[in-house]
Amino acid sequence: MKALILAAGMGERLRPLTEVTPKPMLELGGHPLIHYPIAMLRRAGIIDVAINLHHLASVIQRGLGDGSRLGLHISYAPEPVLLGTGGPLNGLRNFLGGDTFVIANSDTILDLDLSAMIASHRDRAALATIALFRPANIDYYSRLEIDAAQKLRRMRLLMRRNPLRYDDYPRNLDAGVAATLSAFMYCGVIVAEPSILDLIPPKTPWSLMEGLFAPMVADARAVFGYVHTGYFRTMDDLKSYDALKAEFASSPPPKVAL
What is the CATH number of domain 2-250? Predict the structure, then answer.
């Protein structure tokens, strides 16, 4: 099995730090941030990894090399122009297209049992399984809504916070069905079948959620959630970075580091 780690973003909300260090290489708990998704993949036995690059790409390449020091085989997918969160899939069809694969964010830290998520994905004969988490401030995020069988029945992609406005997929869901659904946020990991690559937009840039998975949910395809109830952190801005550094200094979480 292979994986793609998304690492091309600009990290704008972490400026001025990200003017010299790309977000995936910012240190947390003695490790670059990207080491945490790498550790998650390695725990699941996944060592063939592609990483897309754009902002300060050479810093990431120098820091990770060919992956051998981390127990990986790393392939790099440079993006002279940003392709969006989904665009890397267009150029990686040959790399990813032979088997079930994983997509992981480079700025997410969680103690997800990826092997169990993959097993659940296969048991359900899913086309895609999306890791979900229930935050206290659910209205801050897009809402991914699942039924009792954890099938994704609606995605409500957040367009504006004040006042709240969503783009819904499907647009008109029966109110009785909607009332039975449970809302979560996406927490940075997806397991997918290679057949989804036949559904991706042909032209870049495009967004994973808006361009691929939300339309799949609207078409009632086999997209499931996998609810994660353990440790989950993401680093959005300078304030959250400072808070995470303090947290890791006082009580580093288990099962997230290399």
Answer: 3.90.550.10
